[in-house]
Specification:
heterodimer, A: mainly beta, 7-stranded mixed beta sheet, 4-stranded antiparallel beta sheet, B: mainly beta, 6-stranded mixed beta sheet, 5-stranded antiparallel beta sheet
Chain lengths: 113, 115
């Protein structure tokens, strides 16, 4: 069966520090991968998605970036965090070619102070 | 462009009462539809999915949803609420044509179950 791992679960970072969140998927190949952000009391905002290694699509301009160095690894990064980057970050995967279904990781709670 | 609307950002029901969470979609092509549940500080868990087979879809934890094309709706129901159902629920839609690689989410409904 497929599983998705996301870490860390909680992160507290000072403004201006770098960020690296990692997500890996097991039990499948060539998945579609997604990063979402959920601000307090808000819905889900799609940040990035990837349909293959090195292929990243950005949905929202911001100081975040994403990379997919391996088939089942998706990384969310920032060189300098802003206060507004605080939120709950969710990674998700979907079977390539399937009709949109996505499975989510447990999320990372990021607090930028 | 497709959109998903969840009517009622907060819904309260008594334990044992019917749960009804409303979702309407806007799309020229009937989409694939999903309901997800999110407990505090957790990721989203898939409750059920509609993929153009049976219009009445049964999911986990006793939830079900009915796709009504004429009403462009996909409401989520459960006959008897349990305290453990308290969570946030998201309706989502994916087009059945095109890239279909993205979901459009509703803004969520927070369900409170009163004892």
């Amino acid at each position: 069966s497929q599983t998705i791992h996301q870490w860390p679960a909680t992160l507290v970072q000072p403004v201006g520090s770098p960020l690296s969140l990692e997500c890996t998927v097991e039990g499948t190949s060539n998945p579609n991968l997604y990063w979402y952000r959920q601000a307090a009391g808000r819905g889900l905002q799609l940040l990035f998605y990837s349909v293959g290694i090195g292929q990243i699509s950005s949905e929202v301009p911001q100081n975040l970036s994403a990379s997919r160095p391996q088939d089942r690894q998706f990384i969310l990064s920032s060189k300098k965090l802003l206060l507004s980057d605080s939120g709950f970050y969710l990674c998700a995967w979907g079977p390539g070619g399937a009709r949109g279904i996505q499975y989510f990781g447990a999320g990372t709670r990021l607090s930028v102070l | 462009a497709q959109s998903v609307t969840q009517l009622g950002s907060h819904v309260s029901v008594s334990e044992g009462a019917l749960v009804l969470l409303r979702c309407n979609y806007s799309s020229s092509v009937p989409p694939y539809l999903f309901w997800y549940v999110q407990y505090p500080n957790q990721g989203l868990q898939l409750l059920l999915k509609y993929t153009s087979a049976a219009t009445l879809v049964k999911g986990i934890n006793g939830f079900e949803a009915e796709f009504k094309k004429s009403e462009t709706s996909f409401h989520l129901t459960k006959p008897s609420a349990h305290m453990s159902d308290a969570a946030e629920y998201f309706c989502a839609a994916a087009l059945s044509s095109g890239s279909a690689r993205q979901l459009t989410f509703g803004s969520g409904t927070q369900l409170t179950v009163l004892p």
